[in-house]
Amino acid sequence: xxxxxxxxxxxxxxxxxxxxxxxxxxxxxxxxxxxxxxxxxxxxxxxxxxxxxxxxxxxxxxxxxxxxxxxxxxxxxxxxxxxxxxxxxxxxxxxxxxxxxxxxxxxxxxxx
Length: 112
Prior knowledge:
Oligomer: single chain
Signal peptide: 1-25
Number of strands: 0
Strand content: under 5%
Keywords: Signal
Largest sheet: none
C-alpha cells in the first residue's frame, strides 16, 4: 500500500496532494486513533498500528478502529494486558494474534 501511495504522490499535483496523502494514511491513522481511544499510549498505539496495517485486512482494521467503543473505564488506567483481553472479545483469532504479537514487539522496542 505504501508503494502505491508513493506512486500517487509522485503523480499528484499541488492541489490533490493533501487529498492523496490523507487517503494513503487513513487505515493506519484510524487504527492508531482506535488504539488511543481504547487506552494505549501514543508511542505504543503508533508502533502497533504501523505493524497491523501490513498484516490485517481493511475489514479487520475497521473492527480494531472501533475498539475504543469497548472502553468502560479511564483509558489512562488500562494496561496492555487489559487491552488485549478486550481485543480478544472481537472474536477474530487473526486480529488477536497480530495485536498480541505487535504489542509484545512494540513493548520490547520501547525498552531497547
